[in-house]
Amino acid sequence: MLTPAPYFADVADGPEDGQAYWLNTRDGVRIRVGIWRAGASNGSVLLFPGRTEYIEKYGRTARDFQKRGFATMTIDWRGQGISDRLADDVMSGHVDFFRDYQNDVAAMTEAAGVLDLPKPWFLLGHSMGGCIGLRAIMNGLPVAACAFTGPMWGIRLSPLSRPCAWILSWASRKVGLDHLYAPGTVPKPSVLDEAFEVNKLTSDREMYDYMINQTVIHPEIGLGGPTLRWLNEALTECRALSKLPSPDMPCLTVLGTREDIVDPGRIHDRMAIWPLGHLNMIEGGNHEVLMEGPQMRDAVIDALTAFYNANSGPVTDPAPHVDAGGQAGQSAIP
């Protein structure tokens, strides 16, 4: 059942028709979805955000899509935004099982149908949303094509810290300490904890201030670091996905050359075996390529919408075929 939910238009800077709704998932969690639908002549983007993110963060992205004829629907995943928080420490990014996010996907997809969101539908998964989205595509998400930006198909860890992360996160579950924060993280939004000069999200100061402003004015949408439970679940899901074949669906993945949060190697590996896949490298782009400066954002949105438009009818192969060396086609957006 859809009921109206708060939408913080004062910080979203999105299209004027923004609305938000509460949904109840099949396992009893209350989540929030948001839509902007005016002028959607080309279809709708189901935008799966990353960990710590919230609906209002994508107000400007929705505005960019609206200019190109697309509606946008996005979500506060369980445990973040103003959806139900699942731990006593509400600032921790906690989830019981990574597969539970698929309950959120199911509720979001059902709501998109009830709201008669214009078709065709397309997926855009960012960071953790890229991990959730890849699983959803494999489960039959009803979209015509999928795209990803900096997808979390692996977490960037040093060769030394990777085994430590596995051992510590696994052991914490055995001794009942998996509710604790993962090492090196704090119960505070990263944009309020890290100076712009050392952040790994964006090279654009104004966009960084946009994110800071949102979490200062509405602290209830902020989220701190992940729990050890989340870390173990994320590592396990990424490993499981890496062993599965790429879906038979057109895919565009966009990756910044300065990516330092998710594992670029896993992204290159996946796109090299995606028959209908294409990888666009963004020179100078950080993790949040949709939160970079205006020129880079426009180039990314143009690439995404051109891809969606090319795949709005019967499924074809708009991307370069895998070459004899087994590498998916790549191009660079300056």
In short:
The chain is of the alpha/beta class. The chain has ten helices and ten strands.
SSE layout:
Blueprint: E1 3-4, H1 9-12, E2 19-24, E3 30-36, E4 44-48, H2 59-67, E5 71-76, H3 101-114, E6 121-126, H4 128-138, E7 145-149, H5 161-174, H6 190-193, H7 205-217, H8 228-242, E8 251-256, H9 264-272, E9 277-282, H10 294-310, E10 329-333
Parallel strand pairs: 4-5, 4-6, 6-7, 7-8, 8-9, 9-10
Antiparallel strand pairs: 1-2, 2-3, 3-5
Helix pairs in contact: 5-8
Question: What would your notes on this structure say?
Answer:
The chain is an alpha/beta fold and 334 residues long. It has one domain (3-333): Alpha/Beta hydrolase fold, catalytic domain (Rossmann fold), CATH 3.40.50.1820. The chain is built from ten helices and ten strands. It has a ten-stranded mixed sheet, with helices on both faces.
Beta percentage is: 15-25%
Helix content: 25-40%
Would you give the CATH topology?
Rossmann fold
What strand order characterises the main sheet?
1-2-3-5-4-6-7-8-9-10
Radius of gyration: 19 Å
Number of domains: 1
